[in-house]
Amino acid sequence: MPILTVQTTVAGLDTLPVEREFIGSLQANYSAVIKPRVNAWLVKKHYQNGASVKRGAPLFTLDASPFSTSRLAAQAQLESARAQLLEARNNYERAVPLARIEAISQTQLDQYRAQYSAAEAAVKSAEQSLRSAQLEEGYTRILSPIDGIVASSEAHAGDYVGPGTKFQVLTTISNLDTLSVDLALPMREYLALGGGNPEENSDFVREMHLYLSDGSLYPYAGRYGYTHKDVSSSEGTLLFSVDFPNPDRLLREGQFARVKALLGAGVPRVLLPQKAVVQAQGICSVWVVASDSTVRYREVQVGDTQGDAWCIESGLEPGERVLLTGLQKVRNGMKIHYK
């Protein structure tokens, strides 16, 4: 029987980063909690639940009547204080030359000066009261502080809202320009992959790609944000926060996220062409060529793929020769002729 001629390859060794897949949920990078600063009756809500709003857009209008009254009273008080200031200044200015010719005493001049200073202080106090009244009246018109998606509100027109009431929080606005997801990695694996500084890992975590629920690749790559300061005491894991830009508003807060990322500077990996590996019933195997040109069946554990090659985690050493062709024609201990 003629000896079977086959093609072979030699298992290579290369230093490659490790790819890992993470599962998580997307979160808004920041949100604004909308709280009324004054107590008042809610007059109108200006947005649709779940709508996109711009910074400065009106959200709620509160009843401003009591605050308008307070503002008008403060304005009147200011006008009165200004009139008293004018009178006090005139009295003081008339008293100065009289004091020079000793028509009035120095004590009387000091009294006029004190009245003038008190009137100036009264005007400043009235101006501050007016500014406070204007601010409180302005608080009855609640505007969006950021761009984002606005949540629903439990408060409706006619409800009494504000600090100390049932409706201390009216709604929340989430900014969706960028969303983040946390990648959890056991500390043991972090150290094994060459991690050394739990506070800064921009070089350790890279090339982050997000896959949507339908399996499609999200078009924008992620970028490293920061590493959470706490390590889980129960599981000993590090959490890396990764940000994904969201210019098309395709992503939403709470959405399922499957992220693949490269970790570490690189570790030695045994590489083998994928066609050299036989996969059957969950078992991966190769045919190893011995020094006497006989083949031996061997199970291996495969890891990531690099192009058209498998990374072999265990079962094969670099430099070992394996079959590329004739995998279905050989049997254990069979002698072959290889190219």
Keywords:
single chain; about 350 residues; alpha+beta; six-stranded antiparallel β-sheet; about 20% helix; elongated
Task: Walk me through this protein's architecture.
This protein is α+β, with helices and mostly antiparallel strands and 339 residues long. Helices cover 22% and strands 41% of the residues. It is built from 3 helices and 21 strands. The protein has helices at 65-100, 106-138, 187-192, and strands spanning 4-6, 8-10, 12-25, 27-34, 40-45, 52-53, 58-62, 141-143, 148-150, 160-161, 171-186, 205-211, 223-227, 237-245, 256-273, 278-280, 283-289, 295-306, 309-314, 321-323, 336-338. Strands 2, 3, 12, 15, 16, 17, 18, 19 and 20 form a 9-stranded antiparallel sheet that branches. Helix 1 packs antiparallel against helix 2 (106-138). It starts with a strand and ends with a strand.
Structure at a glance:
The chain is an alpha+beta fold and 339 residues long. Helices cover 22% and strands 41% of the residues. 23% of the residues are buried.
Helices and strands, with pairings:
Layout: E1 4-6, E2 8-10, E3 12-25, E4 27-34, E5 40-45, E6 52-53, E7 58-62, H1 65-100, H2 106-138, E8 141-143, E9 148-150, E10 160-161, E11 171-186, H3 187-192, E12 205-211, E13 223-227, E14 237-245, E15 256-273, E16 278-280, E17 283-289, E18 295-306, E19 309-314, E20 321-323, E21 336-338
Parallel strand pairs: 1-21
Antiparallel strand pairs: 2-20, 3-15, 4-11, 5-7, 5-10, 6-9, 7-8, 9-11, 11-14, 12-15, 13-14, 15-19, 16-17, 17-18, 17-20, 18-19
Helix pairs in contact: 1-2
